[in-house]
Amino acid sequence: MNNLLNEVVMISRMAGSAIMEKYLDPDNQVSSKSDNSPLTAADLAADAAINSGITSLGYDWPMLSEESSKISFNIRKQWGRYWLIDPLDGTKEFIRRNGEFTVNIALIEKGIPILGVVYAPAMDVCYFAAVGVGAFVRRNGEVKKIKTNTQVEGELLKVVSSRSHSDARTEALLEKLGECFCVSMGSSLKLCLVAEGLADFYPRLGPTMEWDTAAAHAIVSCAGGRVCDSDGVELNYNKSNLHNPEFFVLPRGDEKLLDLVRS
């Protein structure tokens, strides 16, 4: 698993290079998908790079990507282990040129993310994890092991929220939490901030898809956290409907925040 994780990190960096070529191109074109969400040439270039890289590994595990999401559930439900990919998470951040976009690659086994890589090419920051290996971040050329933060009583709660997808319900929840330190971030980096212990809590009440969360979910889990609904049930993958329910990211064993959410 450790060797496989290193291979996937390299693939994510290849995809990141493909993205950055488009990011630095002033003529990069933006079109729309069928749901009117933005699609850039960088999405397609990264998807092609990941497909090529994963195929070269020689495994026969199928791939489900945001760009190939029309695969029938009748086919998908037969998958025991498969790759779940978002070649460019945070397309709005890419278009706004704030650097907060990522390559997300996850390996799912029986609905559970067992390996995940989240690479932010504009920042050259890579989060990566696998079951039995641990969770890590590579930043400024240095690799360190990461873990979620257990909040000390009396300390200000650190909450991360979406830069591009705020809503009234989330604002109401933040107000209910009382005085806290809030930081906005794009893409799956929000989950990674909790995994690294730089944030204590990430509530997501708006819509997301399975490929938006799977890679970072693996990282959070391996770092000692959880990605769950208000009842504490972990997100599951390869459902007939690929939408996620609303979810919360926090350290494992922290029930106070979920009690507050439920109330």
Helix and strand topology:
Layout: H1 2-23, E1 30-32, E2 38-40, H2 41-56, E3 63-65, H3 73-76, E4 81-89, H4 91-96, E5 102-109, E6 112-120, E7 125-130, E8 134-139, E9 142-145, E10 157-162, H5 168-177, E11 180-185, H6 189-195, E12 202-204, H7 210-222, E13 225-228, E14 247-251, H8 256-262
Parallel strand pairs: 3-4, 10-11
Antiparallel strand pairs: 1-2, 4-5, 5-6, 6-7, 7-8, 8-9, 12-14, 13-14
Helix pairs in contact: 1-2, 6-7
Structural notes for this entry:
This protein has helices at residues 2-23, 41-56, 73-76, 91-96, 168-177, 189-195, 210-222, 256-262, and strands at 30-32, 38-40, 63-65, 81-89, 102-109, 112-120, 125-130, 134-139, 142-145, 157-162, 180-185, 202-204, 225-228, 247-251. The chain is an alpha+beta fold and 263 residues long. It folds into two domains: 2-145, Fructose-1,6-Bisphosphatase, Chain A, domain 1 (2-Layer Sandwich); 157-262, D-Maltodextrin-Binding Protein, domain 2 (3-Layer(aba) Sandwich). The strands form four sheets. The chain has a seven-stranded mixed sheet, with helices on both faces. Strands 12-14-13 form a three-stranded antiparallel sheet. It has a two-stranded antiparallel sheet with strand order 1-2. Helix 1 (2-23) packs antiparallel against helix 2 (41-56) and helix 6 (189-195) packs parallel to helix 7. The longest helix has 22 residues, at 2-23.
